[in-house]
Structure formats: C-alpha cells, structure tokens
Amino acid sequence: MFQITANIVDIINRKIFPGTVIVENGKISNIIREDKLNSDIYILPGFIDAHVHIESSMLVPSEFARLAVTHGTVATVSDPHEIANVLGVVGVKFMIENGSIVPFKFFFGAPSCVPATNYETSGAKITSDDIRILFENYGLKYLSEMMNFPGVLNDIPDVLEMLDCYRKEMMPIS
Ligand SMILES: [Zn+2]
Predict the structure, then answer these.
(1) Every domain range in the chain assigned CATH 3.20.20.140
(2) How far is the CA of 79 from the centre of ligand 1 (A)?
(3) Who's near 171: CB < 8 A, 6+ residues apart?
(4) What is the 146 CA–ligand 1 centroid distance (Å)?
(5) Ligand 1 centre from 32 Cα, in Å?
(6) What is the pLDDT of residues 70-124, one digit of tens each?
(7) How big is the CA angle at 159 (ends 158 and 164), to the nearest 5 degrees?
(8) How far is the CA of 52 from the centre of ligand 1 (A)?
(9) pLDDT class for 173, splitting at 50, 70, 90?
(10) Global pTM?
C-alpha cells in the first residue's frame, strides 16, 4: 500500500480539497478528505495528449513515455503514420511493441494515409488489407487521421475502400 496527502484536484466537481490518496495494487482504492493541509503539492488526473506523433520527438515510444510522465502526461492518442511512411506495417508493429513495455498508455490508431496522397513518394504504403492485419493482430481500435480529404471528396476508390472497411466494423475514424 502507498498513500500520499496533498491538495486533490477534483476535475469533475471543479474543486480542490486537502486529502489522502490510498493506492493498493497499483490502483487508487480510496480518497480520504482531510480537514486541513499546508502543502503546495497538488494531485490531479494524468493528462492525455489527444494528438501527438511520437516519431516527431525522435524518440522511441518507451523513451517518449519516460520524459512525458515528468510533465504529467500519462497517455497519448497517436497515429504512427510517420514511421509507417518509412517502414510500413513493420514500423507500426515496432511502435506498438515498444510502447507496450512501459506502463504509459499509447492509444495507437491504424494509419489511413500512408502515403498521405498519391503525389508523395514515401518508402512504404499501407493498404486496407494491412490495416485489417494490424487490427486483428494488435487490437488497434480506430482508423487515424484521414488527411487525404481530396481523396474523400473526389471518391478515390482506395480511400473509400479504407473508410468502408472501418464503417463495416463500426470503428471510429479520426
Ligand atoms: Zn497529426
């Protein structure tokens, strides 16, 4: 068991109160209100970065996590399309596997635009079939960052096939 007494930031009720957080087996088991507290320590839920490309940090996910937690970030929602542009599915698998070795939460999506458009000459291409494989083998839960809006607006078959694949599975598309 572990406990810490500090000012607790209750995000839902928009209050800050002195209290003690009890942690058992890695999870908060209780929060006890205290009458008084003289502390400049605040406890609040960890931040979730809703849009960050881990590769832009030039760090592998596990090292990104080590630095991000020092700033209060405990999770990300991330499209690994940058590494996918270079290495394809192998790169995405690497990001997922490397991220899984740390307690930080990486919510990776399946890259929808590799390459971003047909005018780009990246090193790899991710198809609907590739994404199905990533989905089935790695539990990705959403199609990420459909940047090819011209492809959507102009009914480009490859792009629509990518979207249809997810609509059938009722998965979110970001
Ligand atoms: Zn982005």
Answers:
(1) 47-169
(2) 7
(3) 141, 142, 143
(4) 9
(5) 40
(6) 999 999 999 999 999 999 999 999 999 999 999 999 999 999 888 877 788 878 9
(7) 95
(8) 6
(9) low
(10) 0.82
**Which pLDDT tens digit goes with each residue over 132-158?**
888 888 888 888 888 888 888 999 888
Instruction: Kindly give the distance from the C-alpha atom of residue 108 to the centroid of ligand 1, in angstroms, as a whole number.
Output: 12
The whole-number pLDDT of residue 30 equals 97
CA 100 to ligand 1 center in whole angstroms: 21
Length, in residues, of the chain: 174
* 130: nearest Cα among 95, 83, 93, 168: 93
| More reliable by pLDDT, 127 or 79 | 79
Cβ proximity of 102 and 62 under 8 Å: yes
Task: Say how many Å lie between the CA of residue 145 and the centre of ligand 1.
Answer: 6
Question: Residue 87 is encoded by which pair of tokens?
Answer: 């290495």
- Cα(133)–Cα(82) distance, rounded to whole angstroms? 19
pLDDT on residue 120: 80
Q: Is the peptide bond prior to 157 cis by the omega test (within 30 degrees of 0)?
A: no
Which fold, 47-169?
TIM Barrel (3.20.20)
